[in-house]
C-alpha cells in the first residue's frame, strides 16, 4: 500500500461518539465499559446513590448524568421501569434509544417513537452488579433486536451497528416472537425447575437424606431455580401471556408422555426420546463448523487440579478448545468434562490425555 | 508403636476374598477393578464375545466365569435382565448376591432369597463401557441398598460392608421408596427435559436460528435429554407406577404455577420461587460441613486455559476445593465456575484471583 492509500484511509478526522447508559448494573456497566474500550465517550445514569461516582472510579463511564447529544442511549433498568426510562431518554436526548429488558412486547407497544428499537442481549444474568462489568460480555453472544413495522430503518441500522461493535451477533425478531421464544427457552424452564425442586423436597420431607439421591443430572436441571426470585416476578408479570401458553404446551406434552409410559408404548417413547436427544445434540452454540469437530468426554476425578491438567494439556499440545462444559453424571456427584476440539487434533489430544492417566471417550459430531 | 503391637496388627493371615461380577460394563467393570485394587480376587462374566478376555487384559478381573465359592456376586446387567441373572447367581454360587439396577421393586419381588439384597449406586451413567472402568467411581457416592422384611441381617451386613469398602456411603431404603424417589429425582426430570427440548424445537421449526436463544440455563436443563434412549425405555417399563405418579404430581404443580402466573399473584409466586431456591441451595452434595464453606463464582472467559488458571491458582495457594461446577449463564453461552472452598481460605483465594484479572464474587453458604 502506497502513502496515498494510507493517507486516504486515515484522512477523515473522526469526532468521538457518545453514548448514555441508564442503569449501571451488570448489563449497563458492561455496555458502558465495552463502548469506552472501543473509543466511545460514555455517560452513565443511576438512581442508586453513589453508583455514578463509583462507575467513574472504576473506569466504567466517563461522567455521570445524560449527554443530550449522545448518539445512542441504552436503558438497562429492571423490566417494569423500562418504559418510563425509554420515554425519558427520548425526551432528554437526541439520538437513538434501545433497552435491554428480558420481555419486549409491552415496551414496544408503549414506545412507538421512530428513534426507539427494543433489544435483549442473551448474556449475563448470573452475576450481579457493577463490579462484574465486563467489556467483552457481549462478544460472541446473541443480541436480539425487536423492530416493529413503524421502526425507522436508520434507527435500526444505527443500533445494530453499535451492538455488533460490542461483538454481538444480532438477530432480529418481532417483540411477540421474541417473548414467545424466551418463554419456552428461559421463563418456563425456570418455573419448571422450581416446580421439580419443590416436588423433590415434598417427597423427601419425612426423610431428608433422600435428597442425597438427588445429585448429578438433577443438580444441573434445577440449578436455574437458584436464581433471584424478584427478577422472575417482574418477568412473569410482563410476559404472562406467552408464559401461560408455553406452560400449557408443556403440560400437554407431559400428559402425552404420561400416556405413553402408562401404555408401555415403547415405539412412541423411543421416538420421543430420540427426537429430543437429536435436538439437544444439535442445539446451536458458538460453534460454527460442527462437522469438523469431535466431542471428547473426560471423567474428572474429585480432586483439585484435574480439570486444570486437561486445560493445560490442550494448551501445551496446541489443541484449540471450541467449547467446554463440565456436566454431572446423571446419577452421582462427579463431573465429566465435555470438550469440543478440531477433529484434526483428536489423536494428539487423546494420546496426551491417556499418557496422563485420563480415560477420554471421543465421538465425532454428526 | 513397639514390635509387639505391630505384630499383633499383622498377625492373622487373611484368606483372599473372592467376588463375581456379572456384566462387565462401566458399573460392573468399576466394581471389579475397585475390589481388585482392595485385595480381592475377582471373577467376571459377560455374554458379549471377547469381553472377559479384554477385562483380564485390562486388569479389571482376575479370570472369566463365575467362582462358585465367591463371597459376593454383583449383577450389573441391563434392568430387564437383572432378575434372571440374580437367579443364576443364587443357583451357581454360595455367597451373597446383589444387583445394581436403577429400579428395585420388581427384582425385589422376584428374588426373595435370604442371600439376596438389591442395591443401586448413584454413580456413573454418563460414560459407557469397560474402558471407562474406574476403581474410585463409588468413592464418596451414595449407594442405596433395598432390604425387605425377609432380608437376612447377615446378608445385608456383608453386602453393605463391601459397598463401604468401595468407598460408598450406604443408604438403606425399601425398594418401593427407592423407586418413588428416583422417579422424582431422575426419571421424571429426564422425561421433562426431553419434553422441554421438543417444545423448543417445535417453536423454532419455522425459524431454526431461534434455537440460538436457547443457551445457558436451557443447555444445562436439557443436557440429560442427550442420554441413551434405550436405557430409558427399560427404566420406564420397570418403574412405570412411580413414574406415572411423579408425572401426575409434576403436572399438578405446573398447573398450579400456571394459575399463579395467570392471576399475577406475586406473593404466591415469590413464595414458590423462594422455597425452590432455598431447597436448591440446601441440596446435599459431598460437602459435609457447609457452614464452614463459601461459594466463589468466577466468570470464565471464552478462551482456553482460563479454568486451568483458577484450578492451578487454588492448588498454588493451598486452597482446597470442596466442590466445583461450571454452569452456564441463564442466558448466554459463557461459563461461570462455581467453586466451594473453606471459608478460612476465601481472602487469599479472592486476592489471588483478582491479581490474575478474574472478578470473583464470594457468598457465604447459609
From TrEMBL, chains A, B:
Reaction equations catalysed: prephenate + NAD(+) = 3-(4-hydroxyphenyl)pyruvate + CO2 + NADH
Top-level taxon: Bacteria
Record-annotated Prephenate/arogenate dehydrogenase domain positions: 17-291
One Pfam family it belongs to: PDH_N
All residue ranges annotated as the ACT domain in the record: 295-366
Keywords in alphabetical order: Amino-acid biosynthesis, Aromatic amino acid biosynthesis, NAD, Oxidoreductase, Tyrosine biosynthesis
GO molecular function, one term: NAD+ binding
SUPFAM superfamilies xref list: 6-phosphogluconate dehydrogenase C-terminal domain-like (SSF48179), ACT-like (SSF55021), NAD(P)-binding Rossmann-fold domains (SSF51735)
EC number(s) reported in the record: 1.3.1.12
Pathway: Amino-acid biosynthesis; L-tyrosine biosynthesis; (4-hydroxyphenyl)pyruvate from prephenate (NAD(+) route): step 1/1
Family statement drawn from the similarity comment of this UniProt entry: Belongs to the prephenate/arogenate dehydrogenase family.
Protein name, UniProt field: Prephenate dehydrogenase
Annotated organism of origin: Ilumatobacter fluminis
Amino acid at each position: 500500500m502506497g502513502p496515498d492509500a494510507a493517507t486516504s484511509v486515515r484522512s477523515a478526522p473522526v469526532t468521538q461518539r457518545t453514548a448514555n447508559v441508564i442503569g449501571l448494573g451488570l448489563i449497563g456497566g458492561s455496555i458502558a465499559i465495552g463502548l469506552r474500550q472501543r473509543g466511545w465517550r460514555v455517560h452513565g445514569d443511576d438512581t442508586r446513590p453513589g453508583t455514578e461516582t463509583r462507575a467513574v472510579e472504576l473506569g466504567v463511564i466517563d461522567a455521570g448524568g445524560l449527554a443530550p447529544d449522545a448518539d445512542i442511549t441504552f436503558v438497562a433498568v429492571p423490566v417494569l421501569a423500562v418504559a418510563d426510562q425509554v420515554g425519558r431518554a427520548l425526551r432528554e436526548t437526541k439520538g437513538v434509544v434501545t433497552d435491554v429488558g428480558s420481555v419486549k412486547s409491552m415496551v414496544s407497544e408503549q414506545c412507538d417513537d421512530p428513534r426507539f428499537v427494543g433489544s435483549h442481549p442473551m448474556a449475563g444474568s448470573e452475576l450481579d452488579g457493577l463490579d462484574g462489568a465486563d467489556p467483552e460480555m457481549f462478544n460472541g453472544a446473541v443480541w436480539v433486536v425487536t423492530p416493529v413495522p413503524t421502526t425507522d430503518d436508520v434507527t435500526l441500522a444505527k443500533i445494530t451497528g453499535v451492538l455488533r461493535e460490542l461483538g454481538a451477533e444480532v438477530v432480529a425478531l418481532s417483540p411477540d416472537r421474541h417473548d414467545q421464544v424466551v418463554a419456552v427457552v428461559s421463563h418456563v424452564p425456570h418455573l419448571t425447575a422450581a416446580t421439580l425442586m419443590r416436588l423433590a423436597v415434598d417427597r423427601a420431607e419425612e426423610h431428608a437424606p433422600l435428597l442425597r439421591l438427588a445429585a448429578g443430572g438433577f443438580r444441573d436441571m434445577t440449578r436455574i431455580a437458584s436464581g433471584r426470585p424478584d427478577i422472575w416476578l417482574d418477568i412473569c408479570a410482563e410476559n404472562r401471556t406467552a408464559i401461560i401458553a408455553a406452560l400449557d404446551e408443556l403440560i400437554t406434552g407431559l400428559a402425552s408422555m404420561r400416556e405413553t409410559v402408562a401404555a408401555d408404548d415403547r415405539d412412541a417413547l423411543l421416538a420421543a426420546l430420540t427426537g429430543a436427544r437429536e435436538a439437544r445434540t444439535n442445539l446451536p452454540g458458538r460453534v460454527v463448523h460442527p462437522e469438523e469437530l469431535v466431542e471428547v468426554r473426560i471423567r474428572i476425578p474429585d480432586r483439585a487440579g484435574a480439570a486444570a491438567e486437561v486445560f493445560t494439556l490442550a494448551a501445551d499440545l496446541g489443541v484449540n478448545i471450541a467449547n467446554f462444559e463440565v456436566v454431572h453424571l446423571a446419577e452421582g456427584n462427579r463431573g465429566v468434562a465435555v470438550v469440543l476440539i478440531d477433529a484434526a487434533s483428536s489423536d494428539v489430544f487423546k494420546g496426551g490425555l491417556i499418557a496422563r492417566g485420563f480415560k477420554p471417550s471421543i465421538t465425532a459430531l454428526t
